[in-house]
Specification:
The structure holds 3 protein chains of 3 kinds. By secondary structure, chain A is of the alpha/beta class. Chain A folds into 2 domains: 49 residues, no CATH class; 124 residues, 3-Layer(aba) Sandwich (Rossmann fold), CATH 3.40.50. Helices cover 42% and strands 9% of the residues of chain A. The relative contact order of chain A is 0.16. Chain B has a domain of 111 residues: 2-Layer Sandwich (Beta Polymerase, domain 2), CATH 3.30.460. Chain B starts with 12 loop residues before the first helix and ends in a 49-residue tail after the last strand. Chain B is globular, with a radius of gyration of 18 Å. Chain B is built from 3 helices and 7 strands; from the N terminus they run H-E-E-H-E-E-E-E-H-E. Chain B has a 5-stranded mixed sheet. Chain B has a two-stranded parallel sheet with strand order 6-7. In chain B, strand 4 and strand 5 form a beta hairpin. Chain C has one domain: Cytochrome-c3 Hydrogenase, chain B (Orthogonal Bundle). Chain C is globular. The chains are: A alpha/beta, B alpha/beta, C mainly alpha. Chains in contact: A-B, A-C, B-C. Chains B and C meet through strand 3 and helix 3 of B and strand 2, helix 1, helix 3, helix 8 and strand 6 of C.
Chain lengths: 197, 180, 401
């Protein structure tokens, strides 16, 4: 990963956005207390982000009903920290695309993704959002990754609530590891700036 | 199950349509308990008016308009109109066939506003146009879609991408039939 | 996407604003779009646009076998999935000219009525969430979970059941299902319905927001092709189950609730009463549930039982032939309708004698209901838009297919 190769030579502590846990073999960061502290801060930030995700449910079809079931009292997504469900993209950081996305809706979904502030993550819930489902048809987007980047794909038609909760927990682990697409992109941007500058 | 559709034998529709339209009624048949009558496309509006206004018929409900592509036959398209009378409990299916080079029918919007979106769908997915419809534009597919998807010569997986969203007032003619 | 553009206007015209609602909006009923021209808070004109969930059901039915269409039918009205499958299977069985076994008919009815209860629960829950009454959402979805348990026991899936087959059902009910169902319809579901009523029926806020709002007069409702609970709330006394009876609906004791108000509150009342009537229907069908097979015996339509396929050569050959050649109905055209959650759900099926349908056309009840929405919005305040939209129970899967 980009952070591991670049950050160990300079004397100035480099705080990269969402950097991973420092290598413990003595090569990187060992013995430099300031860098150790900032990476701990990054870990803390990732842990906090993963536990207080504000989802925006973009429920288009049948998976939308399953998302509603997951948010309801029986399966209760709020116990994982997803208490605040926001319907405005400006206030959310997780876009759960639940349901089929069709060609007519694709520009709208792209705009909504662009309106979300960073850091943001995307879960493609269901077979239709992951790959078009069993609709190999003239109006159906064959997977939302044609339009926006996706972090977690949850298969199923519709996925059971347990399946969606598993997918969400995988996303949390990804955030805490620093492996979601925006985090990787930010690290690569920072590494590129450092190589140039 | 013929009892699902009610006794078609007591239905005076066939007789009254033949009296009114004469030889513009091409065929009438009963299958699976449904009464189906095929008429000439020019006679559609007159037949519809009769169905709606005659007291023994009183078809107050226009339930469905279905367009069918009989590729290889001439006339190519068939449009099926499904009517239901609440007072009498009759049902009838009127079939009208239009050729490929002039797929135009009279709109029934003036008699039943229910025809509004059903006719738009027939235009969108089959390419049959309706004279006198207030706003005949695509309804299910997007305004940049090319072709008519339910036609038999349209491949089921052929996609057209949409580049942007369209304003419904300022660009209200997007997806309309080509101007004459 | 919210863009504010002002249409061309004369210098003396008052200031108008265009507001775009959807296709993504918090009233989580699906994706459709309404663009309104407002003068202050009153709507002058509006345009509704659908098609944001057009999944090409009719084209997919032309590229699949008759039984291959059944999973697609579940996704039509996904809040009451069983009813769509029953409607489609009834149409194909009418085309084939067969009668399915009594047990299959009764089980189909029981599951359809359970689906109807689920559909109305979603409608009541989500439409009241839009008005700010979130508690109803939790209660109604909790009640749906118990029905999901029943469906999952039958067919393995909560939502998209694919339980019907041409000629009957995929499998019989599991043991203990009938007792469990009886317990639910006597205790859990009536309790949920009465809790919802306690919250809403005499609630002054709901009455203020619902009574007199979104009135659709009876004659206009018929002219627009409205059927189902929305039409019955406007005084149209039409229910496919009673007027074109199928599967012995006319042999049992239940009523069709009709209200005269035509407003949001009447639609709520009709749906609540329909849920209670569905419970009555289920109870009576459970009491009279006959034994016997759940699928027709005809080897040109239904697969033979698996143990026979493994032991008996005729069954193996019938299985092979049915899978390789498919169901081959005689060429013809048929229209068949059932009472869906929102009204008359009709299927027109045209067969050309081959294994794939030539044309399947769905008559979606929401389609006819929603096309009147522009007329209903003229002259009302924008706050009422959401109340009316919720009461119509527009399911995008059925609307756009």
């Amino acid at each position: 990963m980009a952070g591991a190769t670049s950050g160990n030579q300079s004397a100035i502590p480099i705080t990269t956005y969402g950097s991973p846990a420092p290598a413990r073999d003595g090569v990187a960061g060992g013995g430099m207390p300031l860098q150790w502290l900032t990476t701990r801060v990054d870990d803390f930030i990732n842990w906090a982000r993963g536990n207080s995700i504000w989802p925006m449910t973009y429920g288009t079809a049948c998976c939308g009903i399953e998302v509603m079931s997951v948010l309801s009292s029986h399966y209760d997504l709020a116990r994982f920290g997803f208490e605040v469900v926001r319907f405005s993209p400006r206030q959310a950081d997780l876009l759960i695309v639940a349901g089929t996305v069709v060609d007519k809706l694709a520009p709208v979904m792209k705009t909504i993704y662009q309106q979300m502030p960073d850091p943001k993550w995307v879960i493609a819930m269901g077979a239709c959002a992951s790959s078009g489902g069993f609709y190999r048809a003239y109006h159906v987007v064959q997977g939302i990754d044609e339009v926006i980047p996706v972090d977690v794909y949850v298969p199923g038609c519709p996925p059971t609530p347990e399946g969606l909760i598993y997918g969400i927990l995988e996303l949390k682990k990804k955030i805490e590891r620093g492996e979601t697409k925006p985090q990787i992109a930010a690290r690569e941007r920072a590494a590129q700036i450092e190589r140039q500058g | 199950m013929s009892e699902t559709m009610g006794p078609a034998a007591a239905n005076p529709t066939e007789r009254l349509l033949k009296e009114e339209l004469g030889d513009r009624v091409l065929a009438a048949s009963e299958s699976h308990g449904d009464l189906a009558v095929e008429i000439r496309p020019e006679a559609l509006l007159a037949a519809a008016r009769l169905l709606k206004e005659h007291p023994a018929l009183d078809y107050c409900y226009l339930m469905d308009i279905a367009a069918v592509d009989h590729l290889g036959q001439d006339p190519r398209f068939a449009v099926l109109y499904n009517f239901y009378s609440l007072r009498h409990g009759h049902r009838v299916r009127i079939r009208v066939r239009v050729p490929e080079d002039a797929p135009v029918l009279d709109s029934l919007y003036s008699l039943w506003p229910a025809a509004d979106w059903f006719e738009r769908e027939a235009w969108d997915l089959m390419g049959v146009q309706f004279r006198g419809h207030p706003r005949l534009v695509r309804i299910l597919t997007h305004p940049e879609f090319v072709g008519h998807a339910l036609r038999k010569d349209y491949h089921s997986a052929e996609r057209h991408r949409l580049s942007r969203t369209y304003d419904l007032f300022l660009e209200e003619k997007a997806g309309a039939p080509p101007a004459e | 996407m919210t863009t504010i553009t002002t249409p061309p206007m004369t210098p003396t015209a008052p200031e108008r604003m265009v507001v775009n609602i959807g296709p993504q909006h918090p009233a989580t009923h699906g994706t459709f779009r309404i663009e309104c021209v407002l003068e202050g808070e009153r709507i002058i004109e509006s345009r509704t646009e659908i098609g944001y969930l057009h999944r090409c059901f009719e084209k997919m039915s032309e590229t699949h076998d008759y039984w291959g269409v059944i999973p697609y039918t579940d996704r039509l009205n996904y809040c009451s999935p069983m009813i769509n499958g029953v409607g489609y299977a009834m149409a194909v069985e009418k085309l084939l000219g067969i009668t399915i076994p009594k047990r299959a008919q009764y089980i189909r009815v029981i599951l359809s009525e359970l689906s109807r209860i689920m559909d109305h629960m979603v409608c009541v829950g989500t439409s009241l969430v839009d008005l700010g009454a979130i508690t109803n959402f939790w209660y109604s979805f909790r009640a749906r979970e118990v029905i999901y348990d029943l469906l999952e026991a039958c067919c393995g899936s909560r939502l998209t059941v694919s339980y019907v087959r041409i000629g009957g059902l995929a499998a019989d009910l599991p043991p203990g299902w009938v007792e469990h169902c009886r317990k639910l319809i006597r205790k859990d579901i009536p309790q949920a319905i009465s809790e919802l009523d306690k919250l809403n029926l005499k609630n002054p806020i709901f009455r203020l927001r619902g009574q007199g709002v979104g009135v659709m007069p009876r004659e206009r409702a018929i002219a627009w092709g409205w059927t189902g609970p929305c039409a019955r709330a406007s005084g149209v006394d039409y229910d496919v189950r009673r007027d074109i009876p199928y599967y012995d609906y006319d042999q049992f004791d239940w009523i069709v609730p009709v209200e005269q108000g035509g407003d949001v509150f009447s639609r709520y009342q009709v749906r609540m009463e329909e849920m209670r009537q569905s419970l009555r229907i289920i109870e009576q069908y459970l009491d009279h549930l006959p034994g016997g097979p759940v699928i027709v015996d005809d080897r040109r339509i239904a697969l033979p039982p698996k143990n026979e396929v493994y032991t008996n050569i005729e069954a193996l050959m019938a299985h092979f032939k049915l899978i390789m050649h498919g169901i081959l109905p005689p060429p013809g055209e048929v229209y068949s309708c059932v009472e869906g959650g929102n009204g008359e759900l009709g299927f027109t099926i045209i067969s050309d004698g081959t294994r794939k349908p030539y044309r399947v056309k769905v008559r979606p009840p929401c389609f006819a209901v929603f096309q009147a929405f522009d007329e209903m919005l003229r002259g009302i305040v924008i706050a009422d838009v959401v109340a009316i939209l919720g009461s119509l129970n527009i399911i995008a899967g059925e609307l756009d297919r």
